[in-house]
Specification:
This protein is an alpha+beta fold. The protein has two domains: 3-147 and 300-391, no CATH class; 164-281, no CATH class. It contains 13 helices and twelve strands. The protein has helices spanning 3-12, 17-52, 54-64, 67-104, 107-113, 118-121, 123-146, 148-152, 273-277, 285-293, 300-329, 336-362, 368-387; strands spanning 164-165, 169-171, 176-179, 182-184, 189-191, 194-196, 207-209, 212-216, 225-229, 243-245, 248-252, 264-268. The chain has an eight-stranded antiparallel β-sheet with strand order 1-4-5-8-9-12-11-10, with no helix packed on it. A hairpin with a 2-residue loop joins strand 10 (243-245) and strand 11 (248-252). It is elongated, with a radius of gyration of 28 Å.
Length: 392
């Protein structure tokens, strides 16, 4: 910026037309950097993933259409997850790059010579960063949960018809251990289920085995649970009455339910198929809380940490921003590569502290809510102290 520009800034003041032009210029520089970084990293993510899983995509393309269409559709959904994962770091990179670029071309010096504080010059960047944090929250709470079925599927199971290993999980409400050889998402089916029964429900044997089990949501007159087809054990289960628990029918047999065939039975459970096989990935905070309140499934401390982390995630992103900006603004750094190195250092320290706090919560050394808030308790005072210099 030349001498004439400095004089105009002094004449118009911070709120004058010239300052608004500069705000748009800085904002455009920030958004361009953010988009370039996001598109570049997303492109690398797509190229690496596409070549790694090329065989799976080719198999699906033989049935569903062109290869580019299959890959494009899959990674269009995955880009939502990538944005959620990288938004905070990309905001910090873009902000530090923008400020370093202004200093490299002496534009920040001209603004400060006109009596404009550093924080005022950085205001477009701060507002844009806060807006992206809000956009990331909208993506996390509304968009990703809406496309959850597409996001949880792997390249080898785009149709949801590929067998996945089935991990045993207890129904905490009935103490039934739900096991199976594999699961199929499209049909909500468990292949070769083996339900090990607790003492209060083992009148006819210790387990129920069948050919398949299908999850059925609650309907009028029937709770939600699993329809076991081709029951193998116990033998002649159709001849026995249903077994209740706390006066509620849990194992429903054909003798008491005319809608069941002779080789079928129904096991009531609040543990839905998604909760058993997918857990709480890509759900909204409201769904996360609802899942934790489900009496049949226990997700441990990690899910509780995730709830608190969701609530304060935008504050995390803003804290990262105010940890990084003073490093380049107050030192007058003009080297872009130094700015990126400082950015990586800040992100690494913040992420490391976050991981340590979450690890401590999984071992029950600290509470879940403290694990989520601990990084802010450490870094917010540091960020406030560092940002004080930006007001000069």
């Amino acid at each position: 910026m030349n001498r004439r520009g400095v004089i105009r800034l002094k004449c118009y003041g911070n709120q004058g037309p010239t300052m608004r032009i500069i705000d748009r210029y800085i904002l455009r520089q920030f958004l361009q950097t953010f988009l370039i970084c996001f598109l570049s990293l997303t492109g690398l993510y797509i190229v690496f993933g596409a070549f790694t899983n090329l065989d799976e995509f080719l198999k699906v393309a033989e049935k569903q259409g062109s290869l580019l269409s299959v890959i494009g559709t899959y990674y269009a959904y995955q880009s939502l997850f990538f944005f959620d994962l990288m938004a905070g770091m990309l905001v910090l990179i873009s902000a530090m790059f923008t400020i370093t670029w202004l200093q490299r071309h002496q534009e920040m010096t001209a603004l400060m010579a006109a009596g404009i504080p550093r924080v005022r010059a950085a205001m477009p960047v701060i507002i844009a960063a806060a807006s992206i944090a809000v956009l990331a929250t909208v993506n996390r709470e509304f968009i990703m949960p809406h496309y959850r079925n597409e996001l949880v599927r792997k390249p080898n199971d785009l149709a949801g018809q590929t067998a996945r290993p089935m991990e045993p999980r207890f129904d905490e409400q009935t103490d039934i251990l739900i096991r199976g050889v594999s699961s199929y998402a499209a049909e909500e089916r468990i292949s070769k289920p083996n339900f090990r029964l607790p003492p209060q429900l083992n009148d006819y044997g210790n387990e129920i085995t069948a050919k398949d089990a299908f999850y059925r949501p609650p309907e009028k007159g029937r709770p939600g649970g699993y329809l076991l087809v081709g029951v193998e054990q116990p033998k002649d289960l159709a001849l026995f009455p249903s077994l209740p628990l706390d006066k509620e029918p849990i194992i429903i047999t054909p003798k008491d339910a005319p809608w069941l065939k002779p080789d079928e039975c129904f096991v009531a459970s609040n543990a839905t198929f998604d909760l058993l096989t997918e857990g709480l990935d890509f759900v909204s905070t409201a769904q996360l809380i609802s899942g934790l309140r489900n009496p049949s499934v226990d997700f441990g401390t990690q899910a509780r940490v995730e709830i608190h982390s969701r609530l304060i995630r935008p504050i995390w992103d803003v804290t990262l921003l105010f940890l990084g900006l003073p490093l380049v603004m107050t030192r007058g750094n003009r080297n872009v590569f130094v700015a990126i190195g400082l950015c990586m250092f800040v992100v690494s320290i913040f992420v490391m502290v976050t991981w340590i706090a979450q690890a401590l919560s999984t071992t029950y050394l600290i509470s879940p809510h403290l694990a989520a808030w601990l990084p802010l308790m450490i870094f917010v005072p540091i960020a406030v102290g560092m940002a004080a210099s930006m007001w000069k």
